[in-house]
Write a structure and sequence with these properties.
It is built from nine helices and no strands. With about 150 residues, the chain is mainly α. It has one domain. Helix 7 packs across helix 8. The model has no long low-confidence stretch (mean pLDDT about 75).
């Protein structure tokens, strides 16, 4: 997540800064230039996927209105569910970014595309798997990790 926060992942705009001469178009929406902010915040594909997940992780409207990925991550970091049964919301942003990045790479490198519904399902599966794996670890360690 730190690479997303500091906008260091190898999106097309970052590759251009490193001297690669590539056409810059988002692999997900195919409309805008690809940047970290675009990919995780303003991309129509990402927003559709995000909106599909909102009812399940209780994402507040104020978070959705934030236009900078680093700011969104900072707000989310301080979002603490009152009920431990809502821990899925704590890992949501990690799963969202990871699965969106994998979808982007699948389109770029394998010419394989999934719909926002499929990506949302993959995010839900990742959350479930990560929480199940965390349950096998010392519960106090898991609780401390999810609260930080």
């Amino acid at each position: 997540m730190w690479m997303v926060f500091y906008k260091k992942i190898l999106t097309l705009d970052n590759l251009k800064k490193r001297g690669f001469n590539l056409p810059n178009r988002c692999a997900l929406c195919k409309d805008e230039e690809e940047s970290v902010n675009h990919l995780f915040v303003s991309c129509t594909f990402a927003n559709e996927t995000w909106n599909l997940m909102r009812p399940f992780v209780r994402i507040e409207d104020s978070i959705c209105k934030v236009s900078d990925v680093a700011d969104r991550l900072m707000i989310w970091q301080h979002h603490k569910p009152a009920d431990p049964s809502q821990w899925s919301s704590r890992v949501f942003l990690h799963a969202f970014c990871w699965k969106l990045w994998l979808e982007r790479n699948s389109r770029v490198f394998s010419d394989s595309e999934n719909s926002p519904y499929v990506v949302a399902f993959k995010i839900a599966c990742a959350i479930s798997q990560w929480l199940a794996a965390a349950a096998k670890v010392d519960r106090e360690v898991t609780k401390n990790w999810l609260e930080c």
